[in-house]
Amino acid sequence: MTLTNTDVTDHIMRLGEQAKAAARALGLASTDTKNAALIASAKALRESLPVLLAANDKDVQSVMGKKPDAFIDRLKLTPDRVEAMASALEQIAALPDPVGRKLAHFERPNGLNIERVAVPIGVIGMIYESRPNVGADASALCLKSGNAVILRGGSESRHSTEIIVEAMQRGLAEAGLPAHVVQAVGTTDRSAVKALLQADDYVDLVIPRGGRGLVELVANEAKVPTLLHLDGNCHSYVHHAADIDKAVKIITNAKLRRTGVCGATESIVIDRKIATVILPKLTDSLKGCELRGDAEAVSLEPRLTLATEEDWSTEYLDSIASVKLVENLDEALAFISKHSSGHTDAIITEDNEAARRFLLAIDSAVVMHNASTQFSDGGEFGMGAEIGIATGKMHARGPVGLEQLTSFKYLVHGTGQTRP
Amino acid sequence: MTLTNTDVTDHIMRLGEQAKAAARALGLASTDTKNAALIASAKALRESLPVLLAANDKDVQSVMGKKPDAFIDRLKLTPDRVEAMASALEQIAALPDPVGRKLAHFERPNGLNIERVAVPIGVIGMIYESRPNVGADASALCLKSGNAVILRGGSESRHSTEIIVEAMQRGLAEAGLPAHVVQAVGTTDRSAVKALLQADDYVDLVIPRGGRGLVELVANEAKVPTLLHLDGNCHSYVHHAADIDKAVKIITNAKLRRTGVCGATESIVIDRKIATVILPKLTDSLKGCELRGDAEAVSLEPRLTLATEEDWSTEYLDSIASVKLVENLDEALAFISKHSSGHTDAIITEDNEAARRFLLAIDSAVVMHNASTQFSDGGEFGMGAEIGIATGKMHARGPVGLEQLTSFKYLVHGTGQTRP
């Protein structure tokens, strides 16, 4: 559908009103009801397999030849991928309910009994790109945490998204919950994103998931609170007291396990004292990866190319890493503090005191000792699933799972107390 | 000082850089060092008494005859008020350190050991009006929670603020902490507020404290995250199963103990079934308070005046309350959900099941049963002190005390784990 700007704003406001009403009902639903909706949604998704694949084929055909292969691969659904989506819904049903947890409890001298209890946030706007499964995962995480969701997926995936939302809505209806718990923006009009970002009367939180352009747009335009990360410029620092073989193994994994994820190491920082020993081993192990070092590193290991100033703050998301030599822990802390994007940074050392100093001093969402930065992930943290990763310092930081999709309120139980 | 807009932006950025560097050092300081700084600041404040009173007199003289008496009373310092400020610093020193608390701890099957630990937020911008003690309290709460603060008090209090900041900086220096932990914007240029609200590279959080105009400005202009509340349109609902005398006593306190605080009840909601019994008693007890009721309430109790639609969403901050009759709990829930500003709402009833339904269904930061809404306060909650009250759902909700001035990070302890 094509709409004027006013139409788009009205449309988003209507979705917002519907979402708010649905969220109110969902917020009072029992865990069993929410789980029943998730399980019924999984079933509905499996039943819709032929329709979904046909819709997805329409999406794929419309961009064929116009978008890179990697884009089309992210967009494409197969029976296996649909099954994985359905089974993710069931896995989220099996996770503990984050709503209603008693976060704190205190009794005051005047007898007031005060509880801090987890409650849903309300209405969440989810803005993402071409992968249709992001819509299903996000809907399931929002539903389980008692939140209504408004999905705004990439316009290229609109036919697939429509079928996925219909399946979730059938699941919700079957459990007696309002269908408007899960809605899609519908229109592919770009002004809809802006309207969603400004709709602070209806939307409590926006989570963008995608490339830097999308996330930057959201960060700049949102009036609504957001949970997001712009960059994952992650560092692995090899301290002079590191076990060299362990360091090579960890960094190879941190850089090359998957180069396109935000927790991949982009910059390797090495103590000068051990550089001649580790550089050749690391270069061997990171075969196929371009290493861009400072002048000193290049002089020690000629397979390195010379880095420019820009490299120190670049998130490559590719088989490239920068290599910086430092004199000691203090210099490493200064360098990483200057260039880190606050996502994940690691130290590799057998010196526990040095590790402790690093973990305290580096101001990133996740700081690691002797482990691969690629562990920075909700699933790996045992959260069951994540809707994104946040690098801001308000509300949630690091992987955003079910608990992070809740707020809280204070319940005050009195017996007639008045304040002196 | 008078500055151009570019000058103001540069000035705020320089304060921001200094604050960020100071916050880094403070974040690593021990509890003892922070407490020593607070105690030394209290001493410095007492020593500065004559200078502070002289500066305050300059502030008071400059607005004499131009501002209402209540404004001048808020601005005015006396030896007793300065002593109260100093002793508040010592009380904050005595509170537990919110930094370093272990918020969660989990071990993964692969042996990764993950802790979630409270850390300071970083740099906090505090924007307030004429009361000089707000600057001292906020500085102390920020210092204790490991955050640097940039104060922007009302221009009328600038001489007082200058002396208070100097005293805090002497206290910081004495404890070996950087003076830039506490800074004042200095210039009274109004564009400084805007520059502070936009400085998201340096400022992690802005907290406004003051009248609706100030808070609205911050809510609309801030690029930086904020913790704030616009309105405190608080309700007290008398359920038909209430103990009438208890209800009268609670509501009299909730409305009249202090009418100018955000937790004061502004709207009284009453079940029709008990209206004839409670209305005369309530009107007697709330003497001096104007009661604006709906037509039915006015017909039952002629001392009431007729409310307009606007009254239901008005925060009077005065000896006025609106009175609404409802059929039952469901109607009360609908009415309060529609008009509440999400601050604090209370039910008065002896029926625990009705109370439970109310506490779950009302989506406000604080919900109460059989207690005065005026208890909605950090001190009354046992937080020791509060820097403000938040009605947003992200990060902190309700009273914002020391714990709410922290973020957290994940510390991941490995033994060489790589991700499969």
TrEMBL record, chains A, B:
Q: Do you know which CDD domains this protein is assigned to? A: ALDH_F18-19_ProA-GPR (cd07079)
**Could you state one GO cellular component term attached to this entry?**
cytoplasm
Keyword set for this entry? Amino-acid biosynthesis, Cytoplasm, NADP, Oxidoreductase, Proline biosynthesis
Q: Where in the cell is it found?
A: Cytoplasm
State its Enzyme Commission number(s): 1.2.1.41
Domain Aldehyde dehydrogenase intervals: 18-291
One MF term from GO for this chain? NADP binding
Q: Where does this protein have coiled-coil stretches?
A: none
Catalytic EC class: oxidoreductase
Check the record and name the Pfam families matching this protein: Aldedh
Pathway involvement?
A: Amino-acid biosynthesis; L-proline biosynthesis; L-glutamate 5-semialdehyde from L-glutamate: step 2/2
Gene Ontology BP term (one): L-proline biosynthetic process
What main location does UniProt list?
A: cytoplasm
Task: Write out the catalysed reaction.
Answer: L-glutamate 5-semialdehyde + phosphate + NADP(+) = L-glutamyl 5-phosphate + NADPH + H(+)
Show the HAMAP family listed in the entry: ProA
Provide the family line: Belongs to the gamma-glutamyl phosphate reductase family.
What does the record give as the function of this protein? Catalyzes the NADPH-dependent reduction of L-glutamate 5-phosphate into L-glutamate 5-semialdehyde and phosphate. The product spontaneously undergoes cyclization to form 1-pyrroline-5-carboxylate.
Which protein is depicted?
A: Gamma-glutamyl phosphate reductase
Species, as recorded = Litorimonas taeanensis
